[in-house]
């Protein structure tokens, strides 16, 4: 029998969501879900009240749709800076409460109280202002998950600047693309970090990227690895900023002022910057962490993630908006052994432990032993970013945690600012299930005619807006409308295939576009194909995601050689190296396959889905629009012969 979580009286009576259910007079999570979308303004106002979030200037209306569903205005007339709710109030209420605890791979532990965190933020804020950085400027954060990342994020938000988080594994080309698109004026980075005992340089990567980014005026470098080397032009050290006299003033911002440009891959290959605002991102992330993950003051939230993915900012703001402690880990969670993750949870008394299916698959495969650590502090497990397999899910929930805690497996994305789908600890949760729509989210699965669909695979959509919905794609409004609103007028189309089964279980079945999901990190085929195209051996290429037991999806690259290209046995390795250097090591192709031709439409569009179907020996679907359908069978036969 498949595993399912059954809530205990503690969760039914004492959890944050149980409190919200009582406020609404709802007898179940499903009843609260339904009522939360009957009047979205009333619901989100109740979240403001329930979580005791104070606006500097009260709003006059929760949501205004007068410009259309595509352009909602939330908390109209309200004034709030996210720092007020997530940091300042706790520095006043619980100054000695632990705000951040950080463990490095070598076991070094650092921590900050709310008072200490506020002081460091005030000093960095003063240092940035003194160097000409202020409201409306874009500031990139290219940092590992260390306390400085938290301080920098708050400092940027507190001066009304826009934070642009970057994945710490990005190569120079990927960094430059995002810095250029955002018009970044300053970057906060580190000289490097240590993972699996090896040093990974970051500052040299950034310096190379900035050779094509003349608008960047300031680079602030945190030196973890060595004493500061001679500074390059426009560089200052983090230590210099911390030595500045603290500036107590948090800039007044409106509810709709931009907080965050969160970059995600798109089908065109050019990254798109999702625009998030102070009030919208605050309300969604605070509600996510409160109601899904049950964080309160005195509880510790730990998610193994990166600053450059949406879970980085969500973890920081969401945890602190609820007065909780944020535990950060910098390094590989299976070093020196597969017991490291569990020992981390015991050492820091973690209440909510966020993991990826890829990580759990790795730990399960590499160790026959169950954890020996005391995991009694853990009351919620979190997961997002990729589908589960039942064996790994049930090993974690049933074998490791003895059915004692729920797995809050939620699904959303960068553009969502949190989850579309989310189970809650007060309801039965079936193995691998996403529960149902997140609170306040009018989510549905529809067929090609936008009719609700049950028992069949359809498109995941949202029928009403929500506070953290990206307001636009930075510098590209047409792309925003095309990406999310053009398929079903008046409905947000997220780009995921989904299923609501006969028993009401919700499941995500993969992307309905070509974007790949590699160990929870999204990347567009075109971003990798543009790198392959530079190689003198490559005439054209197609990149697809293929199911992988550890990564969820692995990158496979197929290329047609140029007429004068010779295959001397080095092309595959060279192409992998190019992708690792220009996009990042996690995205290097697992397979590089030389083919005679790629299937295309008559308008010369490469049929990536047909290529993927050939790899999986599956039905490629309708090929009536293909110029050369025989290419699919050729690739199918070629893949079968691969060693």
From TrEMBL:
GO MF annotation, one: acetate-CoA ligase activity
- Give yes or no: UniProt keyword Nucleotide-binding: yes
AMP-dependent synthetase/ligase domain boundaries:
88-466
Its Gene Ontology biological processes? acetyl-CoA biosynthetic process
Q: What class of enzyme is it?
A: ligase
Which PROSITE patterns does this chain map to? AMP_BINDING (PS00455)
Instruction: Say which domain of life the source belongs to.
Output: Bacteria
Q: Provide the AMP-binding enzyme C-terminal domain boundaries.
A: 527-605
- Provide the family line: Belongs to the ATP-dependent AMP-binding enzyme family.
What name appears for this protein in its UniProt entry?
A: acetate--CoA ligase
Question: What organism is this sequence from?
Answer: Streptomyces albus (strain ATCC 21838 / DSM 41398 / FERM P-419 / JCM 4703 / NBRC 107858)
């Amino acid at each position: 029998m498949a595993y399912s979580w059954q809530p205990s009286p503690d969760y039914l009576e004492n959890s944050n969501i149980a409190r919200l259910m009582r406020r609404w007079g709802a007898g179940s999570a499903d009843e609260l879900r339904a009522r939360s979308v009957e009047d979205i303004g009333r619901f989100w106002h109740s979240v403001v009240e329930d979580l005791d979030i104070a606006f500097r200037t009260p709003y006059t209306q929760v949501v205004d749709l007068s410009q259309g569903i595509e352009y909602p205005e939330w908390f109209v007339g309200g004034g709030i800076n996210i720092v007020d709710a997530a940091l300042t109030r706790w520095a006043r209420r619980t100054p000695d409460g632990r705000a951040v605890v950080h463990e490095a791979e070598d076991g070094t532990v650092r921590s900050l109280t709310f008072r200490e965190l506020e002081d460091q933020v005030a000093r960095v804020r003063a240092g940035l202002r003194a160097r000409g950085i202020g409201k409306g400027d874009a500031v990139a954060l290219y940092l590992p998950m260390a306390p400085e990342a938290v301080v920098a994020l708050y400092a940027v938000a507190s001066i009304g600047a826009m934070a642009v988080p970057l994945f710490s594994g990005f190569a120079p080309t990927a960094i430059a693309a995002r810095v250029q698109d955002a018009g970044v004026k300053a970057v906060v980075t580190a000289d490097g970090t240590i993972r699996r005992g090896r040093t990974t340089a970051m500052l040299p990567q950034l310096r190379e990227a900035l050779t094509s980014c003349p608008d960047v005026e300031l680079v602030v470098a945190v030196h973890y690895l060595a004493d500061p080397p001679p500074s390059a032009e426009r560089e200052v050290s983090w230590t210099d900023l911390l030595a500045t006299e603290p500036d107590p003033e948090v800039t007044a911002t409106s509810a709709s002022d931009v907080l965050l440009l969160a970059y995600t891959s798109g089908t065109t290959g050019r990254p798109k910057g999702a625009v998030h605002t102070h009030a919208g991102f605050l309300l969604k992330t605070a509600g996510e962490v409160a109601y899904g993950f049950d964080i309160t003051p005195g509880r510790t939230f730990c998610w193994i993630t990166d600053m450059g993915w949406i879970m980085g900012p969500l973890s920081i703001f969401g945890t602190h908006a609820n007065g909780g402690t944020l535990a950060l880990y910098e390094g590989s969670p299976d070093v020196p052994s597969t017991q490291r993750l569990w020992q981390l949870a015991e050492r820091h008394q973690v209440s909510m432990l966020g993991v990826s299916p890829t990580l759990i698959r790795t730990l399960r495969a590499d160790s026959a032993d169950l954890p020996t650590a005391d995991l009694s502090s853990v009351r919620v497990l979190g997961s997002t970013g990729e589908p589960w397999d039942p064996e790994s899910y049930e090993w974690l929930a049933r074998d490791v945690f003895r059915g004692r805690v729920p797995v809050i497996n939620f699904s959303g994305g960068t553009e969502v600012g949190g989850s579309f789908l989310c189970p809650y600890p007060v309801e039965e949760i079936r193995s691998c299930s996403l529960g149902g729509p997140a609170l306040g989210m009018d989510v549905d699965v529809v067929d090609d005619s936008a009719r609700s669909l049950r028992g069949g695979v359809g498109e995941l959509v949202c029928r009403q807006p929500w506070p953290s919905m990206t307001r636009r794609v930075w510098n590209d409004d047409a792309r925003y409308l095309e990406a999310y609103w053009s398929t079903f007028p008046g409905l947000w189309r997220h780009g995921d295939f989904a299923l609501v089964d006969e028993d009401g279980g919700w499941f995500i079945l993969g992307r309905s576009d070509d974007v790949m999901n590699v160990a929870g990190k999204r990347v567009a085929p075109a971003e990798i194909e543009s790198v392959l195209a530079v190689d003198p051996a490559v005439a054209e290429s197609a990149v697809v995601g293929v199911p992988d037991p550890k990564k969820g999806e692995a990158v496979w690259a197929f290329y047609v050689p140029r007429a004068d290209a010779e295959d001397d046995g080095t092309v595959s390795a060279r192409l992998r190296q190019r992708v690792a250097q220009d996009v990042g090591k996690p995205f290097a192709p697992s397979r590089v396959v030389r083919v005679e031709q790629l299937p295309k439409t008559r308008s010369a569009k490469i049929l990536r889905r047909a290529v993927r179907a050939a790899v999986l020996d599956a039905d490629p679907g309708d090929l009536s629009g293909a110029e050369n359908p025989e290419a699919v069978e050729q690739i199918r036969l070629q893949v079968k012969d691969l060693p």
